[in-house]
Amino acid sequence: MSLTPTNEILFHYKSSVKVGELERYVITYHLYDGEEIPPDLNLNSLWLKVRNMNPLSYRAAYLMGPFMLYCDVKTAEYHHSQKIVASVDYPKFEPNVQTQQDFVAELSVHNIRQKHVWIADVMSQILFTTNTNVTYEVTIGTSKESVENPHDLPSHLGAYSPKLTVNRLTTLDLWNLTVQITTPQKKKHLVVLTHGLHSNVSTDLVYIMEQIYKAQKNYPHEQIVVKGYRGNVCQTEKGVKYLGTRLAEYIIQDLYDESIRKISFVGHSLGGLIQAFAIAYIYEVYPWFFKKVNPINFITLASPLLGIVTDNPAYIKVLLSFGVIGKTGQDLGLENDVEVGKPLLYLLSGLPLIEILRRFKRRTVYANAINDGIVPLYTASLLFLDYNDILEQLQKLKENSKKSPLINDASTPVNQDFFNKTFISPLTKMLSILAPQKFPTENGSEIPKVSFFESASSILLPPLPERAYIMDPDSRDPVIIHDKIYNEDDIPQSEFDIEDGFFDKKNILLQAFFAGKKERAKYQNLEETIARRWHEGMAWRKVVVALKPDAHNNIIVRRKFANAYGWPVIDHLIDVHFNGDDDDDNDENDDINSTQVVEPIQSVTEGKKKYRKAENIPQEYGWLNKVETNGVFDEGPTGMISTVGEIVEALAKRGFSAVIDRRNASEDPNDEVLRFEEMNSDLVQ
User: From the UniProt record, which GO molecular function terms apply (predicted)?
Assistant: First the structure.
């Protein structure tokens, strides 16, 4: 007897996500009860649908969104290190579910067992404002037709079958439940994750967070606690100092307690500089902190530690100095501080940061050799590298791999053309001043490097990994092409010697750094000076990777499957930095830590304790906490979207409503979007 359309639906739910929010659905299907297998057992698949419910006209409102979702679903047993035998168990994912579009996936029950469990993630792809959200609905049914064309849905939301259980986890659940359910320890190791420009920690770094928590098994004597500051979302154009100060205060006032004995920092892109400033700020403003807490890991992934000046055309430097991407652009452009007379990145590379960095057990930088259109190799690796060895490894990788990672042969989503017209084209008009120049191609030699525009579009429209890559670990080419510890003695003591193999101007990996007219030489010298300061009195582990596009987002696995090319990088990060070799480090320091006296604390009205700042810090470090006057362009064009987001949102929604009211259901939806763009050209161009 066939089911009616109504009872074919087993689950229906509606929700919404804002910038930096995700929701996870743990789906458990009880195939049968008891020990005996029923003779009439039904092994038909279930079907999952996630629908983006926002009006179609919202597609044009990219600067207030974009109103898109990332969705994936996998079996609970799936792990990227294990080979998938049955193709029906292949994870399904879609990086950009646009408004009025569906993500539909089959949930196979081909194996006979009492219960099947799947995990589905729904993530917001909003980038630019905190004032908007993406509304969606989740439907699970017994047939594909039932979820694609549901009829007579019950008025109440939830599960409609005793065989199906669905647990919904919010962003806060995912970031906090692991700590709550693990065995409490007297000693805690705090790991702070920090995101980059136009990014967020809660969704973009959730993969790293979950992988670090899996390393808890290596630490029987301490508890790992992974946190990230969410208050800098949509504020990332306000400058390294502003962002770093807020991160530092969050660590002290919200995260610290007497059980914290260790601390590690992991920063992506701009986040590497933000966490560096936060460390220096804490060291001077709260000097007791690093007497109580042992610094363990300082890790950056594709971070512009030397700025982004010489790898770009000369006019880029001029525009950055005018604050086209806010105060952050001035910082990355090595613009002098008006009062101090030196660039912030130069100040940051010296004392007091270097003094405390020397106390970290490990200092590691991960850098993309290719396919990163945002952060060049030289600035992510602190400049000093064996470039000839890296180039040799790239050539070997190209010759030995079945499909070279130097070639962008990955598949791309089917929405490419429409997405480029409605999002990338206007965005690149607004941010076109950030496009790095291509590598020169002398003697026909070429190392691929995607442009800024390609990297920007890949945030939401990444080139997707091949099916074999996800199913079979043996099909994956190695990506770690250089892993070496550089001591201060390894750094050349004089200016670059073109005869020295360590720095060969003819090496194509360095041509972008050395290229340019004489007036740009001063910035090359400045970047070299900053790099030398970072190396004073300490060693750095430098890990260079060769990832397929888009390497800048893949290196952190921004989305679990869409950015899967970065899996080996995070595996390496965990294996090297969270392998348990420092599990007992605190034992020998317990007596020292217990005798340190924390600065007096004052109680506030809410009953929360607040740690006092040091009354005085050395004058030469005054730039750390000196109050600055905000400039008109400190937030940059996209930063201003968040500042006036409520006004823009209200105005735009009036336009949306007008479009929806006039819409004729028989018209082509794409024509409706184009008409909306014409009517609101002041908002969307």
Answer: monoacylglycerol lipase activity
